[in-house]
Amino acid sequence: MPGDFNKTHNRILVSAKENFLANGYERANLRKICRDAGITTGAFYRHFSDKEALFAAFVEPVIEGIRKIYFDSQKDCIRLFEKESILAAYDITYTAAASFINYIFDNLDNFKLLLTCADGTKYFSFLDDMVSLETDEREKVFELLSSKNIKFNRIPKKESHLLTHTIFSSMFEVATHDFTREEALQYGHTLSAYCNAGWQAVLGI
Amino acid sequence: MPGDFNKTHNRILVSAKENFLANGYERANLRKICRDAGITTGAFYRHFSDKEALFAAFVEPVIEGIRKIYFDSQKDCIRLFEKESILAAYDITYTAAASFINYIFDNLDNFKLLLTCADGTKYFSFLDDMVSLETDEREKVFELLSSKNIKFNRIPKKESHLLTHTIFSSMFEVATHDFTREEALQYGHTLSAYCNAGWQAVLGI
Amino acid sequence: MPGDFNKTHNRILVSAKENFLANGYERANLRKICRDAGITTGAFYRHFSDKEALFAAFVEPVIEGIRKIYFDSQKDCIRLFEKESILAAYDITYTAAASFINYIFDNLDNFKLLLTCADGTKYFSFLDDMVSLETDEREKVFELLSSKNIKFNRIPKKESHLLTHTIFSSMFEVATHDFTREEALQYGHTLSAYCNAGWQAVLGI
Amino acid sequence: MPGDFNKTHNRILVSAKENFLANGYERANLRKICRDAGITTGAFYRHFSDKEALFAAFVEPVIEGIRKIYFDSQKDCIRLFEKESILAAYDITYTAAASFINYIFDNLDNFKLLLTCADGTKYFSFLDDMVSLETDEREKVFELLSSKNIKFNRIPKKESHLLTHTIFSSMFEVATHDFTREEALQYGHTLSAYCNAGWQAVLGI
DNA sequence: GATGAATGAGCCTTCATTCAT
DNA sequence: TATGAATGAAGGCTCATTCAT
């Protein structure tokens, strides 16, 4: 048996995805994953260094991916805000939301794993990490506004964090609530409107 | 030591809370909980029928409590909406948020357990259950609006569910982000403003 | 609470009988027995030295009783055989069976305990002990027959033991197969006929 | 030691047989069984799904086997009885007993386990199940006799059950009373004679 | 390179009995 | 004398990982 490395590798991934999705990282049984993949446990360790590395294979690429999308849209946002106006920045959230959602749907299962099955791995705080990222950016925007002498109701960073959590958690949840891509994109629009209105009400701008 | 039931019981609770908070329900080790409480594992079972019952002792009372508060404020909301106007109903969200947050802070650790350590117990879906409750109520309000011939942009139930998730998850998160009660109450106000504006934008009323 | 010793003692017995009958000696839970009896485990040890002593309270008297009945009927049997004939001895088995069965029904629950719930106690071999007793007696009868020059087909002691087992086990089983006393007595007659015919066929007398 | 599956498997079986025979199913300690087999408890579960499955490995094959033998000899018996006479049917019991006893001796330890160590498993009622089987068959024979207008003393089913118990229990007991195969076969003959005479006496035919 | 048997610490739970109060 | 909390060893079972072959 020449054991086509790639074929085996893929069979492991297929089996692992199924098992992780069904039971979560911790409750998923590595030996069952191997059994379902038609390999031995020993063979597994030729493909992945351990259970967490297997999980990482699904999750790390999309973390990278979504962060890249985030940073890009963040840059756009800042640029727009500086060159044009807050309103333009608000406007761009619709596009940003669509980018996010499209990327999520391009990698749907991986996001399901990341968002609902990561308990017990180092990725458990993914969402909160994204939120922290955005909260920090938002603080910078607040500084910018202040430096431009634009009056607004500055809220504590803690509040900003939780309000931000709102957007991200809600956007990612389309992955876990059986939305089609179309429904999700539609929802992205609704969510942007909702959040933009919310921020305007809270900040006064 | 002849054993004072209440003292031991409390020591178990203290130790359990610590361990559950630190590791989550499943990873928490019952024997360590006992060791930390200064008793043997055998003694434990005089106090609780099993590990899940121990967890339930923290969590069940506050589930009951918060549901009661929810239903009460829901009734108020409907009454106001019917007797007066939507705006009055929007207004009441500030009070409702305060009630929630106060209750959460009256039972802070229990909510931390419920919200972040319940994986592996039957309480894991608490938040989503609350959201489903509220989503159903919201559907009823939509019907009411329709029956009153009030024009609004009715959104799909799925979207409503996720938007609703936003509020609850955000409110409960004050329990897990080291807010003081005052900060939390202040945030409750902000969140209400944010969400009210959001809903108005989305529904068009 | 003056704690009427006898009342408590009886409550323990009632509870124990129920629990032993339902689960057998080993699987019966002493703390449940105490709970059902409305006493504490500590109090129990004032009444019985341990779990086995509690079981013995049911079982030892009837072991004594049935052995006495056995020895009495055995004596009668020998006497008859010596004074009269083998046939007379065969005849007396009908009376002996009736004595046994009546005694069993006078102490029905105790025999159920002894016969079906004694696993894990020193009484587990009660039936076999009875059989051994009778087998030894039968050997003596065989000697007697030989000494009288009565010809018969002497069978190995081992066979005698198993054949004897037949009678005892079958007789005791009326206790555990929901016979009424009348049905059992009737069966006792049938069984005697069956066994007498059997022995005659086997021994040739 | 890289582990030879079959060797280990056999070591487990050897150790398990010893421990089950010595202590019965429930009191046998799985960890001791493993220790005696020279493996860890974890290794055990590669070979058997649980403790009961280990016990079943001994016992299930011989339950199947003895039932097959029973049904075969039952068929022969009915055929003979219909084609020839009751007497022929009585005659065949000698052969049937020999078949049983030979099969028992071909699987001696397994029958010891089944007959004396099965308490706490689902096989505890094996003997009674066999008896019920035979009692039902006997009822059919009674019907047949009636339909042929053969006069006989029909006894209650309850009595028939207990009388039948006699044969089976006695036959199986050769497994647990240190008979050699020859002694047992000899005893099988005696027992058949005994029971045939018994039934003739009781039924009047 | 692949196998798969073995590891071994870990898990929650049970229970007859003891003994300070 | 009665209480009942506590003992503590034992029970069956799980599982990611290792390593001789």
Core attributes:
homotetramer; about 200 residues; mainly alpha; Arc Repressor Mutant, subunit A; 2 domains; about 80% helix; about 0% strand; DNA-binding
Can you walk through the features of this model?
- Chain A is mostly helical and 205 residues long.
- Chain A has 2 domains: 1-48, Orthogonal Bundle (Arc Repressor Mutant, subunit A), CATH 1.10.10; 58-203.
- Helices cover 79% and strands 0% of the residues of chain A.
- Chain A has 9 helices and no strands.
- Chain A has helices at residues 5-27, 30-37, 41-47, 51-83, 86-106, 108-116, 126-147, 157-172, 181-203.
- In chain A, α1 packs parallel to α6 (108-116) and α8 (157-172) runs antiparallel to α9.
- The interface between A and B is medium-sized, with 35 and 35 residues.
- Chain B binds a DNA duplex (21 and 21 nucleotides) through residues 1-5, 8, 29-31, 39-47, 50-51.
Helix- and strand-based class of chain A? Answer: mainly alpha
Low-confidence stretches of chain A: none
Question: Kindly, what is the distance between the CA atoms of the first and last residues of chain A, rounded to a whole number of angstroms?
Answer: 67 Å
> How many separate helices of chain A?
9
Q: What percent of residues of chain A are in strands?
A: under 5%
Mean pLDDT of chain A: 91
Order of helices and strands of chain A: HHHHHHHHH
The largest inter-chain interface, given as chain pair and residues per side, is: A-B, 35 and 35 residues
**Gyration radius of chain A, in Å:** 20 Å
Number of discrete domains of chain A: 2
User: Tally of extended strands of chain A?
Assistant: 0
The largest β sheet of chain A comes out as: none
